[in-house]
Amino acid sequence: MLARDAESLFWTGRYLERAEDTARLLDVTYHGLLETSPAEEAQAWSDVLAAVRLGQVFADGRRPITAATVSEYLVFDPKNAGSILSAVEQARENARTVREQLSTELWESLNSFCLELRGRNLRADLEYQPHELYGMVRRQCQTVAGVAAETMARDEGWRFFVLGWNLERAEMSCRLLSVRYRQLSPSAFHQWMNTLRSASGLEAYRRSYRASMDPADVVEFLLLSRTFPRSVLFSLRTAENALGHLALDGELTRPLRQLGRLRSGLEFADVRELLQGDLGEELHLVEEGIRQVAASVATQYFSNSREFDLHSLHLMPGEGGIR
Amino acid sequence: MPPDGPSATEADPSSLFANYDRGGFFDEVFDADDQVRPHYAALLAGLDRFTPEDLVRRARIRDAAFRSQGITFTVYDEGEGIERTFPMDLLPRIVPADEWQHIEDGLVQRVTALNSFLDDLYVGERAAIHDGIIPTWLVETSDGFNREAFGIPVPLGARCLVAGVDLVRDGEGTYRVLEDNLRNPSGVSYVIENRVAMTRVLPTVFANQQIRSVDHYGRSLLNALNRVAPPASGDQPTVVVLTPGVFNSAYFEHVFLASQMGVELVEGRDLVVDDHVVSMRTTQGLKRVDVIYRRIDDAFLDPVVFRSDSTLGVPGLMAAARAGNVTIANAVGNGVADDKAVYAYVPELIRYYLGEEPILPNVETYLLWDEDQRAEVLDRLDELVVKPVAEAGGYGIVIGPAASDAELEECRANIEADPRNYIAQEVVSLSRHPSLVEDHLEGRHIDLRPFVLSGGDIEVIPGGLTRVAMRRGSLVVNSSQGGGSKDTWVLAKGVELVVEAEDESTEVESSAIDVEELS
Amino acid sequence: MRLDIRYRTTFTYENLVRESQNELRACPRSDENQELISYRLQTWPVSKVFAFTDYWGTRVDAFGIRLPHVSLEVVAESSVETFQRPLLTVAPHLESLRDPSFISAHHEYLLRSPHASWGRGIEAEAVRQRELVGDDVVSLILALHRVTGARITYARGATEVGIEVEEVLSQGKGVCQDYAHLAVAMCRSQGIPARYVSGYLFTRDDSVGADVTDGDVVEVQTHAWFEAAVPGFGWLALDPTNQKEVGVRHVKIGHGRDYDDVQPLRGVFCGSSSPTVEPRVEIRRLRTNVSPVFERHVRDPQMEHQQQQ
């Protein structure tokens, strides 16, 4: 298929997942803080910024780190290309350019999601009913994903969509862990629970690990679970499967090799060993690995896109110089 | 098999036609004695069972279907794009077989002559100019005359790969050519979609008849494109449709055609020229392209040679075409032949290149750069239609009988300032066709745009787009100015339209299912 | 005169350029006044060149580069023999400009074109000259040629591509293409068909155009002049920048309605920065033993006459 179309579908998947993950993170943090002390509030919001890698924006100290400022920034600030509003708009824009390759239902569900979001007074929502807003975003993202899964043929376009979606998911789960992994004392119980909630994994976690909130168990669940869809390993396996389908005649493409290595590293990891070693470094390497895979995917499949503007060139007699 | 319904000469117009007024125009359905023309008898019989409310309801269903499928075009107003459906009137326009044969023969003749003229002009001897059939200055000053196309051959001389020749019917019922569209004629997607829509909302009127199908257009277009591929491209040339992108008002049609033909829809940025060979950027690397069906104007095709600010085109494309590595369809430079001034000479070009009398006449046209003709025209300005040579889409036209004194004065001044930019034509009393207006039928002016494909042989799609001027009394049919369309039926030879009496209740139920599906 | 011409242009970009597609018009044409003996084009990075002749009869070299590069060098080497131009032996009256077949044959060169379009200022000056010289086409052409030189001072950097030629006139400054456009506009305003010419001039200084007496090699830029159609004769070529008749030291690349039709190089590149450009033309005169007179005596009675004295 056209490289540009593949790239659009890849990014549609990424942006949709980004919007959903951000909504969930904000929702959990906001409600988690109702149960914690005020002193922990600033730290919690800092953690949120760290999880989406936007901490430096507030680093100059001009804006305080509060629920209001961080939520606004991550929900609708026009200067934030990673805000929920921005992510949904971009998902729609990308989908629009490949609209004829999507099912009508998929386009319509994404389109109406975007229109609904645009039509809301987001500032008022954040002040009076943030949970309702975040709930709407999560539901709509899940609807779109569901419609996609039900109505798209499993062709090349579908694979790129799944790839983008799952690479984004893996990266986010990884980051949730990196923000939390240092807090290994028992009093960090609530923080670990919130981390699980941010990944919509609390119930699934309890079915496997019961009431334990041992950090080792949470790390194992979110990083290495083979059954929980949001674990890093699970997402990477789904992404790898999609990449495998994209390779012609069983060719071992560069992104496939990189992703395979990354995934198998996790496949055979032991969480106790990880905790004895430098977990922070490990998580950082995994996150870096995911970024490299994304870059290789772009080089392998989307390359040669005309990134720069075309400039015209004229040369006149009697003059040295471009006009 | 004789129709079950009323015979042609005895048919009573149903309540739909109560108070229908032909208004002194040539009417497609009713003749001069207000009798139903034979080829419409069965349709009217079939419509007899519908009340106006039924039709209105079905029209709404059709609108909803078009909207949800995205069969829209975009009208840009102050930078905002508004998606509109191109309204389809439920009453089809019917052309009997012998009339169609006449039209088809005329179209084949005309497009053959135009292809010859263009080929002669750009790669040949320019014989028609040398022999004085058409003035040199007329050709050289035409906006569409493209010097960059000079010397670029087109396989089979099929420069007008897709031509849309606009026909009107005058007060005597004679078909005349109003305008040739040889660059980017659009609208064929509506031809196909209208037929599909009709079969869904008014299925009964199709029963037991033989209307020539139009759904093979995609296959025919692809065949023609394959035939103009460069010789070196082999058995399976790679064909693409080049679109300016989602912001173009006809984008839906580009998507439609690419999908009908099963080829890629690309934008300029998806193509690249390397060593004068055009390729498209795919996930598996560069794939060579042999034929480009481009829906982009000449001026935007190649920033090296044309507008350097165009991001819609492909740098180096013209060199690749010149090197014979890719065919651009429709060819660059066709605009000189659909120029309104050159239009007046087309009958002569037919005589010159084919040695035949034109089968389809032009509308009587006056050339305002000729002193005598200009004097006469200025004398009768309030009776004639004045058209600027350079405008498209129906803009800038002054219709004498409908214009105010101020408008006529302005028109006179424009003509005197720049006579070479204007032609004048007699007002053609366009034929009318009953059309659904709210809950009853009224006559509305129509025209016809058949689509003609060249690729060695010339093929005409049966029927074409019948455009309707939706506003009462209006003669303007363009989509961008509030026109609508009708499904156009060409009857197969030797068979009459026949409708059997069917159980209406089952039809109502199936329509109800449609409503649920579509709402 | 036998001349070897080496046209060389280097584009240097600040950042990597991924793609470049171009058309070069640097090859001298063969016509009644000159003969192209050889021509060769090379580019660095190397590219495949596709050559063709355009609508105006000019040779075009189309080439594209799709390797990332920071500089593009184009070198076109040609060898050409120029001949003496025939003397003007006719003196048509102004009314011959209105002959329908003359107009029809030169129609494209009578109309306004983007860079050679006249307004009141140019028209007024042209009419003034017409009143001065009387009813003689050639005198009028020469007068317009002279007044172009008089009204403009040679100055680089004063004008830009796309400048209206009326503004050139009112500013009074320009380079060779501005002189050429002005002369063309003035001629056309009086019904004299005129065309813009792109080419090379063997001289040390384009703006002056003096003969080269102290050697056989010069380094210049591409040059521009104009040609006016004289009824019953053909095209009269004049160089308004140096106020000389076009002769054996002028080598023509091609002509057109104006600069747009015969740009030495046009193209697009895909990158983020504008390049610095170094164009250079080296012209070398070859002194040959065989006098061109023997091959050309039919065309050049004046020269032969001088020889015999």
Can you walk through the features of this model?
Chain A folds into two domains: 1-152, no CATH class; 166-302, no CATH class. Chain A is mainly α. The mean pLDDT of chain A is 88. Chain A is built from 15 helices and one strand. Among the domains of chain B are: 98-164 and 178-191 and 212-354, Rossmann fold (3-Layer(aba) Sandwich); 365-426, Dna Ligase, domain 1 (2-Layer Sandwich). In chain B, helix 2 crosses helix 6, helix 2 (52-69) runs parallel beside helix 14 (504-518) and helix 3 packs across helix 11 (346-354). Chain B has 14 helices and 22 strands. With 519 residues, chain B is an alpha+beta fold. In chain B, a hairpin with a 2-residue loop joins strand 17 and strand 18 (440-449). Residues 1-13 and 496-519 of chain B have low confidence and may be disordered. Chain B has a five-stranded mixed sheet. Chain B has a four-stranded antiparallel sheet with strand order 5-4-19-20, sandwiched between helices. In chain B, strands 7-6-11-12 form a four-stranded parallel sheet, covered by helices on one side. Chain C has 309 residues and is of the alpha+beta class. Chain C folds into two domains: 2-83 and 264-295, Immunoglobulin-like, CATH 2.60.40; 94-262, C8orf32 fold, CATH 3.10.620. Helix content of chain C is 22%, strand content 37%. Chain C is built from seven helices and 16 strands. In chain C, the strands form four sheets. A five-stranded antiparallel sheet of chain C has the order 3-6-1-16-10, with no helix packed on it. In chain C, strands 13-12-11-9-14 form a five-stranded antiparallel sheet. The longest helix of chain C is centred in the middle third of the chain and has 15 residues, at 137-151. Chains in contact: A-B, A-C, B-C. The interface between A and C is medium-sized, with 18 and 37 residues. Strand 1 (310-315) of chain A pairs antiparallel with strand 15 of chain C, so a sheet runs across the interface.
